[in-house]
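Entry 14. Ran structure prediction on the chain below.
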Amino acid sequence: MACAVMLARTKKQVVLLERGGRLGRKLAATGNGQGNVTNVRIAAEHYTSDDPQKVAKVLARFSWEDAVRFLEGMGGIFLPDGRGRVYPAGRQASAVTDLFRRELARLGVETITDARVTSLQKRGAAFAAAWAEGEVRADAVVLAAGGCAAPNFGTDGTAYALAEAFGHTVTPLSPVLVRLRTSPDAVRGLRGIRVDAGLKVLRGGKARFSCRGDVLFTENGVSGDAVFRASSYAEAGDTLLIDFLPEVGQDRLSAALKEGEDGLLCIVNNGLARQLYARAGGERGRLLSLLKAFPLTVTGTLGFAEAQVTRGGIPLKETDGDLMSKLCGGLYFAGEILNVDGACGGYNLHWAWASANAVKEGLR
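Output, structure tokens:
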């Protein structure tokens, strides 16, 4: 949608083919339904890719301020929160989708829904994209069909085949920004408890990643924005260490801790306190250790069905600086279909806007 808007503003005739019955369903679910559209800390270091330098160059051409100007150019007000995440002032992701729909209509972009493209070919100088009910021909094509994450929105990975037909490869795919599984016994009695915690991912005793944010205990593992960020670095067999009081040092915590089952009053959630006390067997040293380094062994993730983003895709090295295929002139890529994934916090939507901008520049 962003690429279609940008291209239409350069007076190009654009046809937007949408697999589903309605545009932007996945966008309408972003940011916990609040629409986290970018981040003031946009930088290549927050992304994983086969070509970090190209990611940096694409981002350098479209900053977070550019993203806000682009979005506000369609209407609305977009503001950063205290952690740098940028949201619409109305905190409603579905309204961002409506903004795009309105702008596409205003620009006269032809939108065809329920058009699941099953064949993409180049015939002479033109491309032909076909679906069950029709075909469209064009001088250039932008593949912006997403990855495998959240297949309920139509992104089930089948679009990679359209690129493979032109000789492109697809790197190994895995779900990221996703809930992590643990043994159900490890989180028994903790379901529904949410904490602002420090989180580390350990592998072989060495820290691979650390952050601070929400950790939500589920029936079979952990969720929350800290876990989503950590999921990009965690795999089965790794250890998660949760610090329930990241702002409180060991001495202060030891002084506050009282004896008995109610010794953690006003220190942590009462339900969490009962579980920690039981697991520590009432032993003070063990309880202090669990408060600062509660261990969980990762057994896996909830998979693509629950993931927000796909890791892997069409290698960036198979594209030029404007994200045009090096194998087929006039074929471009944008968004999650490429082997680029960002951290939690608006980074992946920003990649959508920035990669769309690169395509627009290439098609000028």
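The mean pLDDT is 96. Will compare against last week's run tomorrow.
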